[in-house]
Amino acid sequence: FVALCPLEAAAAPQQEPLCIFGTGDFGRSLGQRLLQAGYKVVYGSRRPQSCGPVPPGTQVMSHMAAAQSASLVFLCIHRENYDFLETLVHQLSGKVLVDVSNNLKKNIYPEANAEYLQKLIPGGHVVKAFNTLSAWALQNGPADASRQVLSESQDFIAYLMYISVATKLGLSVLDRGSLNAARELEDFPLELFPVWRLPLRLTLGLTVSFYTYLFLRDVIYTYVTEGKDISFRIMVSLANKVFPIVSLILLSLCYLPGVIAAFLQLYKGTKYKRFPDWLDRWMLCRKQLGLIALGFACLHVLYTLIIPIRYYVRFKIAESTISKVKMNQTSTFDTSVAWHSDSYLAVGILGFGFYILLGITSLPSVSNALSWREFSFVQSKLGYLTLFLCTLHTYLYGGTRFLRPSTYKWCTPPGYMLCLLLPSVVLALKLLILLPCVDRSLTRIRRGWERNGAGDDSRKALLT
Amino acid sequence: FVALCPLEAAAAPQQEPLCIFGTGDFGRSLGQRLLQAGYKVVYGSRRPQSCGPVPPGTQVMSHMAAAQSASLVFLCIHRENYDFLETLVHQLSGKVLVDVSNNLKKNIYPEANAEYLQKLIPGGHVVKAFNTLSAWALQNGPADASRQVLSESQDFIAYLMYISVATKLGLSVLDRGSLNAARELEDFPLELFPVWRLPLRLTLGLTVSFYTYLFLRDVIYTYVTEGKDISFRIMVSLANKVFPIVSLILLSLCYLPGVIAAFLQLYKGTKYKRFPDWLDRWMLCRKQLGLIALGFACLHVLYTLIIPIRYYVRFKIAESTISKVKMNQTSTFDTSVAWHSDSYLAVGILGFGFYILLGITSLPSVSNALSWREFSFVQSKLGYLTLFLCTLHTYLYGGTRFLRPSTYKWCTPPGYMLCLLLPSVVLALKLLILLPCVDRSLTRIRRGWERNGAGDDSRKALLT
Amino acid sequence: FVALCPLEAAAAPQQEPLCIFGTGDFGRSLGQRLLQAGYKVVYGSRRPQSCGPVPPGTQVMSHMAAAQSASLVFLCIHRENYDFLETLVHQLSGKVLVDVSNNLKKNIYPEANAEYLQKLIPGGHVVKAFNTLSAWALQNGPADASRQVLSESQDFIAYLMYISVATKLGLSVLDRGSLNAARELEDFPLELFPVWRLPLRLTLGLTVSFYTYLFLRDVIYTYVTEGKDISFRIMVSLANKVFPIVSLILLSLCYLPGVIAAFLQLYKGTKYKRFPDWLDRWMLCRKQLGLIALGFACLHVLYTLIIPIRYYVRFKIAESTISKVKMNQTSTFDTSVAWHSDSYLAVGILGFGFYILLGITSLPSVSNALSWREFSFVQSKLGYLTLFLCTLHTYLYGGTRFLRPSTYKWCTPPGYMLCLLLPSVVLALKLLILLPCVDRSLTRIRRGWERNGAGDDSRKALLT
């Protein structure tokens, strides 16, 4: 009864060899792994006699002979060299063809490599797979338990055979749908942080603007008014102002789209109208914004902690002590200053602690271990708490300084005031949403209720 | 021969549409993903003409027509609206019914949603699944490689069809057993850190008690005896005493149950007697205790590092320098004080380093990459080393202070002495266990030996 | 049609019980999990009447009766007790036998336990599995979503049955090939950081050598020339010199093999010649070298940040202030010193930030979420940037000190100069490789080109 199940054909390793075209790095690594998994392996090569080293225990034949001996062929050759396959149309028809090729750049060919292969061999069962693996990862595979491969095929029998082989190799297969998506799969190894691009650009813009702004207000102002050169401050003092400012702005930009979305839903009285595109795109990069904000917060902490080691600071402290001695001053301890300084530092540390917690829970393995409610609790409740603490930290930093006219050099506000605007607005709007009456409407809308009453059916639809 | 394998029926996407009841967020996201995977999708709706947007390429029909056209139906509707399904008993019999619903709260219905569904449609093959996924996760699924779904069914054919669909969607399926456990699965997305509850309460209790204790000994004592207001110390100074105290106690509470368990086994002379319930529950939350302890240790480190930035500390240092100048004192450098101060700091840093290492190895993805022996080496050997270093750090902090009577304000010991009790006991007991004779008995018991010699068979049983 | 598929036999839980030999921890935990998954469970025991507690709902029989009632038997007994199985050869023939046993040490038996079992029961279908799981992990399994099991078998039918059971238990199966590799699987839980051994030994050697070197130059030199005892410096001051030195050397040892490999390829004109063994082994432990380097960098940061809290430092600062007052000196603020001190610190912090980033991306769950190009961008580009920043930090630390003769105590260079050698060489070589002409040749070679022109076929092979 066993022979009736198509899984059998490929899975019983003894019966039939698997064929690999191409004896490059990838071909050799793959052959080695297949051998280890108990398969017979046959290489197809243009010049079987002089093709370089292959794993011991495998055979090298001509392409034609190799193709005939197996019912599953791995194509480990560059697309540029696919043309010779046309001569094997007959031998490869009916065979499962696993296309593992990648290109060096995106969009240099009109169709995906796998689609091109299917065109060349119309009778073959093409599976696109393994292209997200490197030869390196293949060779070291068994130790790396969590390696997954993406793959796709239109062809169910081909797919079953391929899966049984991939499983034997210790790879867990993630199906990515039919062959039409092959291009997406082939572009996958060429992507370079696509979702990070927007947040990174924003960060760069903010950093440069605030650096310039503070440079003008600090270094240039001092030079113009007092003639003193304090340009050394750009290395640490200015950086330690820019980092927390950018971090706080990015953190509030994480939570602003959620608030905007809630008000849009309240305004439209339904959750079934799509959000505008810019809001959708914004919401999709919240995680990245938050992680960059965390990075800047970490830099702020490090820059703050080295303050007492700096030559400048040590000099100032010594100078002030010496001048006190000389003037014979007796300064008295001011409890309110101590309160202010300590609470400012303590709130900052607590805010940073929660910040780190948010960062840890966004590690893939940690967030996968959380239930949906836990994840949203951490990212929303703890997130707003973090935003609140960091904003409070900045307010405490400012203290009563905003009352002194000397703060407004050249009539411009200091950087920390500018950066307080956004988080204050976000927190105020969030408070508004938390008002019982607003909250009730919003919850009703999010469960499917519509203000204009049309949605009898959609009211019954499941929201998550 | 292919048609003989039941996998085929659902897996060949062209043949038959899949049906989704409900056009809410989840229904629409699911439809989109099914479309991307190459399936035909049909929606069932009460008012097919005016049901809101569905993904382009899908059809909307009446519930009855939709049910008839497919052999697998996803029910993306709230349980409150299941009643209309009774009218479709005939159409849904023999179909695979995937119940994805969640409730807003636990225990509001007598039976699980999936069991209720099975009651309504006795002839349907009910699978409980996807309820741990959000519409959001479904839409962004392909990028999130490690998303797993839990699911369960009593029905093997139904289950196979469901698995082939879930796999096509790029989800890896974790089977949670038969439908009887549906309630557990439905409660899953509603859980909020259940294992963290006990450790968090304990932490809160300890923190509040020690804060109060230190507040009385520090702030109130100074106010009463000297009339000075040093309440500003609660922000940083007191916190920086409470955090390490609680951290050390929690860390030793991590290792105490293991020691108790060993002594219980030695006392009873067998490992086949169950531990008392409190010990079992305690052992299950050791990881959480350790992580909270690590969090407090991190706060302690940050609070310590900002010491030189505090106004209070700077004032004190300046004051002492000035007074030295005025008194014309010549203090000499005391090498033993330098030794003491440096070794206290160095031991603390090393302890913290190992602490962090323990934290990193308890990340799910890291601990999965370790073998069982590696994991137990890190968590046990390195764990005890960490406990030892942190305890030593506290002893060094105390130094010879315990000899001075002025330490015992109002005849109470300082906080660090109280917190040294528990780790000292744990380390002493562990040392006892490591004695060769005790260790030998324990190893024998853990390999299945029993003192009263009854267990001939169980001696042969495998222990891990 | 269902009965035709071999999956069915084991997967329909109602039909037939599963059998477990052995009622120890592992046997009981496994039984409990199988019960939860809906299977009937039967225990085989030598003395069925007095075998200790088994999960309620299971039956205990004699080994013979239990073996006859099931077609899949889990053997949860120590290998020492396998001998009695010989009496059951008849009953166990044709059954699927899952061997879960582990040994206490490596290489105490000539063949793997699973192979021994196969010898005892030649007619059984042996599967080696579950031995990497502990009884503990089995009991807590359902919550730990990412638990994977490794397993292997020569026997396809046996394997399919086993897989369907393992899947029902919520475990994802990683196939490790045929039974010949059983020993590797049995050694797996006994391994203790095998890839870490070489890097750790190297680290130990470097640390001890530099500690000794600096101890001689610092403590002994001062004692000999000035007669002063500054031995307290070994706790923090010396450690804080050794840690960054070792960290920088380890980091450059991470990148040196890649550079050597590139020059080897350039020299040989082909990428098809194998690298020497020592280079291969070196390249395989680069990740471990990098992580240890990161650990030492973290220690360096902590040791640096506590500087202002140290008694020694506070004493020195107070002393210098007092002496300035007494001498009535007026020291002027030196902007160039401020520039130097600040830029040295800032570069160090930035280097450390990228260091941490490298560490985070080498977490398994993070690196799995990156595409191949992203991973190599982070580990290569950002890695060299980190190495550059850390080297620059060290150069800035040295400053113009290398010009002063007093730096070379006993004619030996200070530690930081020694450690600058290696990273400077690595960076210089890397710069050489980045020269357009060299880069072009290297890229051609890595795409399969060979200088001696022999490789017509291999030029077509796929590189990754």
From TrEMBL, chains A, B, C:
Reactions it catalyzes: 2 Fe(2+) + NADP(+) + H(+) = 2 Fe(3+) + NADPH; 2 Cu(+) + NADP(+) + H(+) = 2 Cu(2+) + NADPH
Signal sequence annotation: none
Transmembrane segments: 242-267, 288-313, 344-370, 382-403, 415-438
Localisation: Endosome membrane
Domain (Pyrroline-5-carboxylate reductase catalytic N-terminal): residue spans on this chain: 18-103
One GO term of the biological process aspect: copper ion import
Molecular function as annotated in GO: cupric reductase (NADH) activity; ferric-chelate reductase (NADPH) activity; metal ion binding
Main localization category: membrane
Residues annotated as domain Ferric oxidoreductase: 245-390
Entry GO terms, CC: endosome membrane; plasma membrane
InterPro entries: Fe3_Rdtase_TM_dom, NAD(P)-bd_dom_sf, P5C_Rdtase_cat_N, STEAP_metalloreductase
Recorded superkingdom: Eukaryota
Keywords from the named record: Copper, Endosome, FAD, Flavoprotein, Ion transport, Iron, Iron transport, Membrane, Metal-binding, Oxidoreductase, Transmembrane, Transmembrane helix, Transport
Cofactors, names only: heme b; FAD
Cross-referenced SUPFAM superfamilies: NAD(P)-binding Rossmann-fold domains
Topology in the lipid bilayer: Multi-pass membrane protein
Family statement: Belongs to the STEAP family.
Protein name: STEAP family member 4
Organism encoding this protein: Takifugu rubripes
This protein's encoding gene: steap4
